[in-house]
Structures are given as C-alpha cells and as structure tokens.
Amino acid sequence: MPIVTYSPYNIPVSDIEYYTIVYACHLCDASEFSNARNLRDHYETFEGKKYPSTKSRTYNTPTQQNVVKNYGCPSCSDHYDTTNELGNHLDEKHTPKARPEVDTSFKSLKNENKWTLSTGTVVEDQLYEFGKLQIREHPSQSFIFDVNDSELYIKHGTFTSGEIEEIMINYSNISLQLPDDFKQYLNKFNCKSNSRHKKSIVTKRKLEDSYHQDKHFDLD
C-alpha cells in the first residue's frame, strides 16, 4: 500500500514516522480500497457523493518501522488518523455548498429568455447544474459560459464539443438585456464631471439600509 514519509534532516532515523495510506469510506463499513479512484467510484455509486479527482499520487516505500495507518483523501494528498476526520475534511474542502442566491436567480429566469441550442440543450439550465458541482465560486453560478472550462464542460457532460462550438460561433448574436433596477443603478454613475462622479460614489444608496448579500449581490 502507498506510504508517505516525513523525514526532517535533524530528526534521528529511529524517530521518523511513516504513514501507510489506505482508502476507506467514512460513511459505511466497506472494505478498504486499493486506490483513490476506486474510493471515489464507491462514493458515487453507493453513497451518492461525487468527489473531484486528483493529480496527486502516492507510492509504496517499504519499511518495517514506525508505521502508522492513515486514511487518504480520494481528492487530494491529505490523510487522517480516522475516517471521521477524513469525512470532516471531505465536507469542508471537497463538497459543494448550497448557494440559495443562485437557486433564486435560476428560478427567476423565464424559459422564453433562455438560450436553446440546435440540439435542444438549454445553456442556462446546463450552467446551473454545472455550477452546483463547484466547490468554490464559479462563473457558471452567474450563468456565464467560460471558454477556459470547455474541457470540464465536456468531461462532466454539461456540453458536447459541438455545442461548445455552436456557443462560440453564435454568442455575439445574442442580445443581452440588463434588469431595469440594475440599469438605473449604473446610470447614477453616468455623470458629466468628476466632482459629480465622486459625489455619486459616496452617496448612500437605499440598498445600504437593508443590505443582504444573497439579495443584492448583483448590485454589489
């Protein structure tokens, strides 16, 4: 099994602690798995949890002394003494968080205003589903198609390569309409002089009296 070693130069060899990395589910009593990928497959198939893959690799380094068993994360190189600690790490670092403000924005979209591709795929619907998989903030949560994520879109089945090409070709022909309240807010900064512009910036807005991040994040 993989072994990760820590060996600061000023520590005697006899005091070096070696970690044997094993892979086990923190939610059930399934047998240990031979590698991180098999553990991720188990989580997805049997626990309904999809954790991101990792490029980190661990390798066997046989040793007979000071070996401590640790449970490896299937999504990074971290490892822990217990499966409970592993579970806490997965929840904190590798589990997408609920974003009610994104759900509210999506529900407010009208179907007739969404972009439907020639394949029948609705762009906003796919970006919404892709955004729910993201652990950190991502442009898809604002229904923004990021060309740099094309490979990820294909990998997750969000869009096909043909659909991405169609988006790239036709996006410039899509007319965009800002919400009226957003346009009114921006127009307040359309001043004819620097002095008025500065005054407009420091003027208190109504939303500041009852500001709420989930409700006013677009204006913010």
TrEMBL record:
Organism annotation: Thamnidium elegans
Organism lineage string: Eukaryota, Fungi, Fungi incertae sedis, Mucoromycota, Mucoromycotina
Protein name per the record: C2H2-type domain-containing protein
Domain C2H2-type: from-to ranges: 73-94
